[in-house]
Amino acid sequence: MTLVIIGITVVLFAIGFEMLLVLGIPSLLLKLAYFPHMPNEVLLQKMVAGMNHSTLMAIPFFILAAETMVQGQIAPRLTNLVRVFIGHYRGGVGSTTVATAMVFGSVSGSAAATVSAIGRIMYPELRKNGYSERFSIGLIAAGSETALLIPPSITVIIYGWLTGASITKLFAAGLIIGLVLGGLFIGYVVIQSIRHDVGRLERQGLAVRWKALKEASWALGMPVIILGGIYSGMFTATEAAAISVVYALIVEGLVYRELTLRQLADIVEGAAITSCIIFVLIGMGSILAFFLTLFQIPTLIIEVLDQLGGELLIFLLVVNITFIIAGMFLDPASAQLILVPALFPAAVALGVDPIHFGMIVTMNIAMAMITPPFGLDLFVASSALNKPIALVIQSVLPFIVVNLIVLALVTAIAPLSTFFPRLLGL
């Protein structure tokens, strides 16, 4: 019966059913096949309990803040600021693209929103300054991954909810891993710029830099408030998310004065739809996690590892391979909801630090955003840049290699993920 249910799950996914059904129907079949006398209310309670968590309140707030900034002036002003300060260096326009993605990611927490926000702005600049079409597309799609690592990251919030790990510690670790990934992307940009003799922007004078800094000063206040508030202990991640919405609305509506009521209505509608999709998946994932626990799947994984000698590196290699394969087909939230409840107890049993494991998971999820054939950012980039999906897939392949290098470093060097939270005394 179990093999039949697994087969049904594969068929549902293959023929294009929505993920909420791919997660929900197998759970219902498991209940009917193995627990026929279990009241249906239990499943409803598990679904509601899965979504009824204060930490998860940060998700709709950060999504709303990101939508507000994408539609407003915060994104282009941040982009212009970075361009003015680093555009004149070798590979400056490409480095500006990565740095802007990192800065915007620090106020949005969404890779898809980052692709949409910087894609239309930076793609013409990259092409105008001599970068090839494929390189430009790949850089925009890949650079936006840093938004899933640099706080506030929605992916990190979901992992923290699933495992009970400290969101603040995860944010601190994600900041370092995000900087490492962004740094290697910039290094790759510089190498390619030297190889192909790509031009650079003119060096801007102090007057131009000061003007750009003044224009972006309100936009820069967002990461300062969010990260400073969280790391200082002034407020939680959820409170920071709520503050980010208020701040974004004040800046776009009252300072920049380019946010109309009609735009605000569209922004709220888009954020609500995105939030509902995520929470429905979380609810369905909670039911599936419940059945994984009933079937003692984590215990079985631990027993298999014991038979293999309990080798930590072998386990982490299996984790990475599993997430890479899942990332080819599943959206980030679904991959976490299915795999983390099964793998996290085994990781803890082997002595893996929850923050270290969280960075391994998050790095895999970030890479999955550009992993063919169904990486979400591939389709966002295709839509935002009006390019064929096949071209986008070809464009990101070299950047996937960079991701694999960072993933190997994160997996093998645990202190890379844990030293900064400890340095902050978290």
Task: Give a verbal description of the structure.
With 426 residues, the chain is mostly helical. The protein has helices at 2-14, 19-34, 40-51, 58-71, 74-86, 92-108, 111-128, 133-143, 154-163, 167-195, 206-232, 237-255, 261-294, 297-307, 312-327, 332-349, 354-368, 376-385, 389-412, 415-423. The radius of gyration is 22 Å and the shape is globular. The N and C termini lie far apart (47 Å). The model has no long low-confidence stretch (mean pLDDT 82).
The share of residues in helices is over 70%
Number of strands: 0
Q: Which residues sit in consecutive blocks of at least 5 with pLDDT less than 50? A: none
Beginning-to-end CA distance, first to last residue: 47 Å
Strand content: under 5%
Query: Mean pLDDT, as a whole number?
Result: 82
Number of helices: 20
Order of helices and strands: HHHHHHHHHHHHHHHHHHHH
How would you describe this structure in keywords?
79% helix; 426 residues; mainly alpha
Sequence-ordered SSE layout with sheet pairings:
Elements: H1 2-14, H2 19-34, H3 40-51, H4 58-71, H5 74-86, H6 92-108, H7 111-128, H8 133-143, H9 154-163, H10 167-195, H11 206-232, H12 237-255, H13 261-294, H14 297-307, H15 312-327, H16 332-349, H17 354-368, H18 376-385, H19 389-412, H20 415-423
Helix pairs in contact: 1-2, 2-13, 3-13, 4-7, 4-12, 4-13, 5-6, 5-11, 6-7, 6-8, 6-10, 7-8, 7-18, 8-18, 8-19, 9-10, 9-16, 9-17, 10-17, 10-19, 10-20, 11-12, 13-16, 14-16, 15-16, 15-17, 16-17, 17-19, 18-19
